Amino acid sequence: MESKWSRCEAPAANSLGVALRNGGETASVLGMIGVNNALRVLGVNNIDIEAPLKGVLLLIRNQDVPGVIGRVGTLLGQHKINIANFALGRLQDSTEAIGIVNVDHKVPPEVLAELRAIQAVRQARVVEIR
After folding, report:
1. How many other C-beta atoms lie within 10 A of the C-beta of residue 43?
2. Cα Dmax for the chain
3. Which of 6, 15, 63, 115 has its CA 20 to 30 A from that of 80?
4. pLDDT in tens, 73-110
5. Considering its fold, how many domains does the chain have in total?
6. Torsion sign (Cα): 95, 89, 93, 28
7. Collapsed DSSP state (helix, strand, coil) of residue 71
């Protein structure tokens, strides 16, 4: 997949695009420094999405079908994991979507496995930003 940020051309002076290639696969992220020097994600793999870039983030790539947000929220709630922010984005004219969920606590491996078991979820990863 060729990324619109693959050459790390960010659209504004306070933004930065980063692309990584591993074999034939490319992943890209666009971010910025916002108000009060807060770090923000603006896009992932050509999908526009805005979320805080801090703490524990749950990155979910899924099919854009009804019920995914509800299932993710319910599952996290059942495990007493509080959602601080939930951001969504999707490719235009596509069924691919991305969710960035900022949570208050670490996501245990067994909860991550349950998220991955949701039929519409293609990937689920945890990233910690310190």
Report:
1. 22
2. 42
3. 63
4. 999 999 999 999 999 999 888 889 999 999 999 999 99
5. 1
6. negative
7. helix
| Three-class DSSP category at 56 | strand
Give me the helix-helix angle, 68-78 and 109-116, nearest 10°. 160
Identify the residue whose tokens are 């509080």: 82
pTM: 0.84
Half-sphere exposure of 28 (CA within 13 A, CB side): 21
For 100, counting Cβ atoms within 10 Å of its Cβ (0-12 exposed, 13-18 middle, 19+ buried), the class is: buried
Contact status, residue 2 vs residue 10, Cβ threshold 8 Å: no
Residue 9 lies in a domain: no
Q: Which of 5, 122, 105, 20 is nearest to 55 (CA)?
A: 105
**End-to-end Cα distance, the chain:** 29
Residues near 74 by beta carbon (within 8 Å), at least 6 away in sequence: none
Query: What's the full length of the chain, in residues?
Result: 130
DSSP state of 19: E
Among 4, 116, 5, smallest CA distance to 61 is for 116
* Tokens (6 digits) for 85: 């922010």
Kindly give the parts of the chain with pLDDT less than 70. 1-12
